[in-house]
Amino acid sequence: TCEFDASWAVMKTFNVDATLDQQIAAMGHDLSIEPYYVEDGDGVKIYGGDIQHHFSGDYETNFLARSRGKAMRKVFEAFKLPVRTVKNRKEIEQCLRKQRLIWIKTTVDFKPWVAATWITQSGEKYPAVLGNDHALIVMGCNDEDVVIRDPLGPTSTNGTRPYQYRVAWDRYLEVFAAQGNDGIAVGPAKERG
After folding, report:
1. C-alpha span between 181 and 193 (Å, rounded)
2. How many CA within 13 A on the CB side of residue 130?
3. Could you tell me how far CA 75 lies from the centroid of its own chain?
4. What is the pLDDT of residues 21-60, one digit of tens each?
């Protein structure tokens, strides 16, 4: 549930406390097909639900279960937080200067990946990674690095994984591209008055 863990951390920053059930209700949960993959001469293909609009798969049992930023956007909007798509370094830097946080799709620990194509039941295709799909938060940057907040933190397979770390821009942009530069900037709710 890294997508929802990362969104929860973003929302808590802006004084919104949304449970996993509330987030899934806002996004929608596509269980019409349980994601599975095949590898053939054309590479790895993951067949699943419409991750552009809903979360696809059983997040408790299927390592392929996931969503994309456009689907996650519905969660932030349900809690009245302004959202915009970010696709490149310039947009990320602009949003960070405006005190926004950036929710992104990446790989675990920015490690290498197996490129895949996610294919929905209607035939839509999205760039994906096979085994180490992850969602993170960009919370700052300078000329050399991006500052990452990782809701995963220490695990049984990596007890020293930090909650916060830096990644060089070049590596960040390379890994960000693996999932189709899938990021959204989120800001605080606008005050009425």
Report:
1. 36
2. 12
3. 12
4. 999 999 999 999 999 999 998 899 999 999 999 999 999 8
